[in-house]
Design goal:
It contains 28 helices and seven strands. By secondary structure, it is mainly α. The longest helix has 28 residues, at about 380-405. It is globular.
């Protein structure tokens, strides 16, 4: 009997692991040079070239976040040894493995038995977005130092819970060296864990005191980054990154934040093991302090350093903790009585909704949870529970109806994805993973048949997703890269600036030259007023190709280069060369070439297309044939509002 029980338990573990693996692969397949990975690739490449080459790209010239991390140097060494594609792919895989290992180590430090694997499955299956705007998520499927800093933070927390203080501090220091913004929240959590329960007030008191001192210096005696934002700089930042200030957050942003806070509040106030409670309280404290610093330092006073610090990002570690401990705390909370069940059902109903409706249900769930221990008439408790059942049933049916009616899918490019691709998109909100995890967990605890079905279902799910969701052999930068653009590079000075519309990563990787202006580069305006001013000038000069709205907000349209746009862009102060997707009425600087377009998402393949290279000096020297064209070269540029 004991042998049968042990085998069934191992079967359950295998089932949960395969389920987590399927979710992880489906939602975190390698996405190539996407999002901030483009900027970190530029920073690494700049370290390998001459001082007046990529290092003087407008993103880096006036200062950037590169000065706060050692990652670019390590990435540059990998690129020098393996090439840019292999380095990005290899380091991303290493980062993913490190993240999973650290998360598993943390889970083993706070969870036991089946709950450990259920917690890891929740981490793998839920979307992982944190903070405002769904801009960032933990364990991102592209290369940045964030994934390594996150892994070190999780490792440090696990070591802290195990009383290995020196090793925990070392892990946090290394995380700070890689990505200070991500590591700061983890360091606060570690301090809360170490000081709890004897001195729980020390960390909040220290943060509040530091916040007050920073604001006082910025207002009374500004020095360095401890100063207030000039209005023009702040206006550009708010256009480019509306998630930085709490006053600019929309309903979806608050939904993401409130979900984490309420989940941590319930977990931290539910009876459970001491380690779980300490970890949940630490995550809740760090998340709340991050919101406080963002509200006071960035939103109310607009202090440069506190805005650049983006303290709202501290909630990422709280999000991870909430998902991990839910495997133990959610069942315990359910057993706390009918009022507690009402709160959990309201929380679950909010998960099916979006926007202010979801926020309202989460807040209501927290309010109901707060009165769970107060004496209430039996009829009132039953009425609240039945009402919450009706709410969740209604929202679940509405969610199912919406998703089922949008299921049909077809694709000429990949017809085999008719079922897989919709499923991958449907698990993005986390509802399907939660339901499957609950089903598998309950079935495995019911009887042998349930355990076998759980394992079989997990294997089938993994087998269905693995072949179609990811292809690690596909290259995002083709092998022919060293030859691509070789003729063009010969006619360009190494310090030339190139405008290749919508393709800065192509300019940096393929042409090994500075890019003139793009939305990607405008991410640097938060860390440099000089970058903000120069990019605005360039955006206005190139407004016939990329308007300032597009450069700073991703809004509006990007236009193809034609003769009128080329003459406008190539005025004094413009780029040295332009790359066009069609032939223009100018003498070419080099023969046209078929160049690869590096893939930036896993859903679009890397392709090749013919492009033409033109020197702006030649464009300026070519007479204008049409008076109407001459009159229309300079167009009024729109400005971000």
């Amino acid at each position: 009997m004991n042998g049968d029980a042990g085998a069934e338990q191992r079967l359950h573990v295998v089932a949960m692991c395969l389920l987590a693996l399927a979710f992880w692969v489906a939602s975190r397949a390698y996405q190539g040079f996407y999002h901030d990975s483009q900027l970190y690739t530029l920073q690494a490449l700049a370290r390998l070239g001459p001082a007046d080459g990529l290092a003087m790209d407008v993103f880096l010239r006036f200062g950037s976040q590169d000065r706060y991390t050692i990652f670019s140097s390590l990435y540059a060494l990998a690129i020098d040894a393996w090439g840019v594609e292999a380095a990005a792919r290899t380091l991303m895989i290493v980062g993913q493995l490190a993240w999973v290992a650290a998360a598993a180590y943390l889970a083993s430090s706070v969870l036991v038995g089946h709950a450990r694997w259920a917690g890891l499955a929740l981490l793998a299956g839920l979307p992982g977005f944190y903070g405002a705007g769904e801009v960032f998520r933990f364990a991102e499927p592209f290369l940045t130092p964030r994934i390594f800093a996150e892994a070190l933070v999780l490792l440090g927390l696990a070591l802290g819970l195990r009383k290995r203080t020196l090793l925990a501090a070392a892990a946090m220091l290394l995380a700070l060296a890689l990505h200070p913004l991500m590591a700061a929240g983890g360091a606060l959590c570690l301090a809360c864990v170490a000081l709890s329960p004897r001195y729980p007030w020390m960390v909040p008191a220290a943060v509040v005191a530091g916040l007050g001192a920073a604001v006082l210096v910025a207002v009374v005696a500004p020095v360095g980054p401890l100063r207030l934002f000039p209005p023009e700089w702040l206006a550009l930042i708010r256009t480019r990154s509306e998630f930085l200030l709490i006053s600019d957050w929309d309903a979806e942003s608050w939904e993401c934040v409130i979900t984490t806070l309420v989940a941590l509040y319930i977990a931290a106030t539910t009876a459970g093991p001491d380690r779980i409670l300490r970890l949940a309280r630490a995550g809740l404290t760090a998340s709340l302090l991050g919101l406080l610093v963002t509200w006071v330092g960035a939103t109310l006073f607009h202090v440069v350093l506190l805005t650049q610090g983006q303290a709202w990002r501290w909630s990422w570690v709280g999000t991870v903790i909430a998902m991990l401990v839910a495997a133990t705390q959610a069942p315990a909370a359910w057993r706390a009585g009918p009022v507690a069940r009402t709160a959990l059902l309201l929380f679950a109903a909010g998960s099916f909704l979006k926007g202010w409706f979801a926020v309202g249900l989460f807040v209501l769930a927290a309010a109901v949870w707060a009165i769970r221990n107060r004496p209430l008439p039996g009829s009132m408790g039953r009425a609240m529970f039945l009402g919450s059942v009706a709410v969740i049933a209604t929202t679940a049916l509405g969610w199912a109806g919406l998703h089922l009616t949008t299921w049909p899918y077809s694709s000429e490019a990949s017809p085999h994805m008719w079922a897989i691709d919709p499923l991958n998109r449907k698990i993005a909100d986390g509802i399907i993973p939660i339901l499957l995890i609950i089903l598998f967990f309950r079935a495995a605890n019911a009887r042998r048949f349930g355990r076998i079905m759980a394992a079989a279902g997990a294997v089938a799910l993994a087998a269905m997703m693995l072949p179609s969701s990811i292809d690690w052999r596909r290259r995002f930068v083709p092998e022919e890269l060293p030859q691509a653009g070789a003729e063009w590079r010969r006619v360009m000075a190494h310090d030339a600036e190139v405008l290749w519309p919508q393709n800065p990563i192509g300019t940096w990787i393929i042409l090994d030259r500075r890019h003139y202006v793009s939305l990607v580069q405008s991410a640097g305006i938060l860390f440099s007023e000089g970058t903000a001013a120069e990019l605005m000038r360039r955006a206005q000069l190139t407004s016939l190709v990329n308007s300032p709205r597009m450069v700073f907000g991703g809004q509006g349209r990007s236009w193809m280069l034609n003769e009128r746009a080329a003459r406008s862009v190539c005025r004094a102060g413009g780029p040295d060369f332009i790359v066009a997707a069609g032939r223009l009425a100018f003498r070419e600087a080099a023969p046209p070439e078929r160049l690869p377009l590096p893939t930036t998402t896993r859903t679009t393949g890397s392709g090749w297309a013919t492009h033409w290279l033109y020197s702006c000096a030649e464009v300026r020297n070519t007479p204008v044939q049409s008076p109407a064209l001459a009159a229309g070269i300079t167009a009024p540029a729109d400005t971000p509002k």
